[in-house]
Protein 1
Amino acid sequence: MISAARCQVRFLPALAGFRGEAAVRAFVQGEWCWIRWPEDRSDVLTALRPILGVEFYEFRAPHWYPAGKRLPSELRPPDGDGESLARLMFPGSFSIAAVEDSELPRLPLELVRGGSIQPATALECDFEALAAWAETATTAELRSIRAAVSGSRVLLLGTKPPTIPGAERFWGKDVFLPVGFRIVPELPLPILRRAIGANSDEYAFIRPNGIELVAMAAFDPLTRAGLHMAVRA
C-alpha cells in the first residue's frame, strides 16, 4: 500500500487540510520533502495526486519501492518521526516588543457631509418650542424622551425624537453628529471618544463649530409636570 510521497516543499499547502492530523508527517530536505501517512489513509493519497511531479512509494519489507515498480528505489523516506504539517505551515514563534513612548503625529478629525442615511436619535431646540410640542404630545411620546435643559436650550435623546420646527437633529449613540454628516476618518466609538476627550459618563455632540460634552446625569425623563414646573420657573 502506498504510504509515502516525495514532492517539492512549495506544494505542501496542498495538504493544509491535514494540519491537525498527527499521523501525517513531513521530512524536509532542502527544496524537497517526504510525506508519510498510515496505509489506510487514502484521503492523503487523493490530496497528493494533483501535485506536479509528485512521486509515490510503498513499503515492502525491507525496502521502499516506487508505486507500481518491481525494483526497490535508491530513494527512501528518512527514518524518525519527522515534523507535523502544522509546524511547517504556520510561522515560527515570535515575541512582541513594547513600543517606546514617542510623539505620534496628530490626525485631524473632520466633520464632512455625506455617509449612509442614519435615523435621528437626538435633537436640540428652544425650550419654548419643546413646551409647545408637549401640549399636544401623548404620554407615551413624552416618556420615550430624556431631556437636559440649559437656559433656553434643550437637548433631547430618544430613538424617535419629536419633529419640532427649527430643531437641530443628530444621529449616533454616546457620540452624536448632525444628521447628514460623518466623521473622517471613521473611528471605532471607544477610540473616537478618547480622541475628542469625552469621559465614559459624558455624551459628546460634535458640530461644525466645535464639540460639546454633556454629563449623562444631566438627562432626565421628560414629563408634562416637569415641563410645567420649568415654565413657571
Protein 2
Amino acid sequence: MPDGFLCYTKGDAAKNSWMIRHLTERAQHEGLRLRLVFAEDLAKDVGSPKFVFQRSRRGDLSQKWENQGARVLNSAQVTGITNDKYATFCYLNKQNIPTVESILFDDLTNLPDEKNPPFLPLIAKPLDGHGGVGVELVNTLDKWAEICRKKPRPFLAQPVMTVGYDLRVYVLFGQPYAAILRTSQRDFRSNFSLGGQVRAVATPADCKAMIAKLQQTMPMDFCGVDFLKDGQGNLKIGEIEDAVGCRMLYQETNLDIVRDFVAMAAKEIKK
C-alpha cells in the first residue's frame, strides 16, 4: 500500500476537518495510506513520502518532496505560481492567456502615488490572499490615498470587472470538471465564504480553451480557475486557486470531486 502525506497548515486543518476526513477515507478505499502532516512541523525529518496531496500552499515543501522523487499534487510549479497573484498574472501574460491586468506596488520598484491611481475604480488586494480577505474596492481619490498610506505592501491594483460574474471552473488533471457561478447582492466580492450566491452552470467554451492552453505548460491536478468578465464581455482569468475549496460544489451538485480526484490520483500513483 503506497504511503503518502496529506499536508495542511495547522490553521487550515482546523477549518477543514470534513475535507481531511473525506480525502483520507477515499485514499484508503483506493488502497493508499495517507498521513496528515502539518507544514509548520516539516522542518523536522518526517520521512520521504511516495506521494503528497498538497493543501498547505507551500511551494518550497512541494519542491523538497519532488526533489526526493515524490509525486506531489499539485506540483511545486503550480503551488509556487498560483499562490502569488502577481506571479500568476505574469505567467498568464507570458503564455498569452487573457488575464485581469495587475499592477504591483511595493517599497522597492514601484511606490504607489497618492495623487495618481493607475485607474479608478480599482480593486486593491494582497498577493497571497484567499476568500476575499484583504480585498478592497477603491472608487475615489481619497480612498486611493488611504490605500497608499495604510495598505500592507506589496499589493496589487486591478481594474473593476463586471459585477455579478465570477465563475469558478474546477479542474481535475487538466480537464474542466464543473463550474459554479458566484454572485453577490451586498458585496463587490462574490466569495461563497462572504455570503455570495452560487449556482452550477455549464463551462463556457472560452474557459475550456484557456484551461487547455494553460495545462500545456502548467499541468494542474486539482485546482479552481476563476474567470471574470471585462466591460466588453470578454472572459479573463482572475486567479487560480491551488488548495481550492469545494463547499459550494457539494452544495449545488451531486458530484463528489474528492472521490473522483483520489480515484484518478490512485491510478497514476500505482503505475
Protein 3
Amino acid sequence: MSYAVEPPARQDPPRSRPVLVTLTAALLAVLGLAGLVYAVVTLAVTPGVIGRFRAAATGADRADVNGFVTIVWTAAAVAAVVAIILFALYVVLALGLRRGSNAARIGAWVVCGLGMLAGAGSALAVIVQRRGIQTPGTLGTALAHAYPSGWIGLNVALALAQMVAYVVIAVLLAASPGGFFRRPVVAAPGYAWPPGSVGP
C-alpha cells in the first residue's frame, strides 16, 4: 500500500547577524567582564585597606572597629558573588542576542533598566559617603582614607560609565532590525493518508 508523503517544510535561508546586534552583544559581555574585574580588584585591595584602617583607629573602641571591618569584608564578598552571577548572565544574554533570541533582547532591556538604576544608586551612595567623611577623627573618615588614593573618585566615574554603557546598549538594541529577533515558524513534517485509504 502506498502513502502520500507531504514534502518537507521549506527552510528559510539563514539570517545574517546585523552589525548592531554584534556590537550590542560584545558590549554586554565586556560590561560583565569589567564588573568582574572590578570585584576582583576590590577583593585584592581590601586586606591593605583593613590594615591601614586598623592602624589609623588604634584609639577607637575595638568593637566599633571590628564592626567596620566586618562591613567592608561583607560588602567585598557580596560584590564578588554578584559580579560572578552578572558576568554569567551577561554572557548568556550576549550569546542569545547573537542567535537572534527575542527573549534575550527583552532580558537585555530589563538588565539595562536595572543597571542604570543601580549605577545611579551607587554614584549617589558614594557621593553621600564622600560628604560624610569630612569630620576628622571619626572611624568613617579613617576608613575612607585607608582606601587607595582616588578610590572614591574612581567609583563615581565607574558608576557613571556603567550608566552610559547601559544607555548605549539599550539604544543599539532599539536600533537593531527587529526582524532578526523574530524566529521563522517552520511547520513540522507530517504524513497524510491519501483519500479513501486506511491506516495500517
Protein 4
Amino acid sequence: MRGDIFYLPDAEAVGLRAASIFIDRSKIATTAGGRFRVALSGGTTPSKLFKQLGAVVAGDIRWDLTDIFWADERCVSPDHEESNYKGAYDMLLSRLDIPPANVHRIRGEMPPEEGAREYEKELRRCFGEQGLPAFDLVILGVGEDGHTASLFPEVLSLAESKRLAMPVYVGRLKSWRITLTLPVLNNSSDILFLVTGPKKAHIMKELLGKGGDGRKYPAGMIKPARGNLTWLVDDEASFFLKRG
C-alpha cells in the first residue's frame, strides 16, 4: 500500500503542506466538540511543520480540543537535547495556549519497561480500555535503514501484537527508546510521512520505487487498516523515484 505521494521542492514546502493537512484534520475532528488526537515524531524534518503550526492564526486549530501524543521517544530526560518531547516543546508547544493536560508525553526518564507501561496506561486512559487507540493523525519519518517511529528492522517490536507501547534497544546506537507498536500505528485514521534530504533517496527508492521491496522495512509495514496513508517527499529524497 503506497498511499498518496506528493512531491514537493524542499523541506520548507513539506512543512507547509503538512501544516495544511494538520489543520484540515483538526477541523474535521473537532467539529461539534470532538477532540483531535495526534501523535508527533522527532527528528529534524518535523521542525518545519512545528514552525508552521506555531504561526497558525488563532482559531484555525482548537488547541483546547487537541491531545498531543508521541509515536516514540528516546529514553532520556525531557530537557535532554535528544528528547523528541523537548524538540516539540521548544519549537511548538511553548508557543501555544494548550492546556498541560492535553500533552501526553512518553516518560523517557523512567526505566524503559516502566516508561512503556506508563505510556500504555495513559493511552488506555485517553482512548478506553478496550481495543486499539485510534489516532486522528500520526506524523512519521523514515530513517536511512527504513525504520519509522522506533520500529527498527529485525527487532522483536515488529512482531508485537498485544502491547500498545514497548521498549526497544537499538544496538548500533547503544540506546533505549519507547515506541508505539505497529498495530496501534496502523489503526490510525491518517498517517502522514514527512521525508526530506538526499540521505533518504536510496531508502525511498526501496519503499516506493519500481522494483523495490518496501515490505522488508518497518516503514513499508505501515498500512492503515481503516485510514489514509500520505507521503510528502522533497526533491532530494525523491531523486530515484519516477513521478507521474
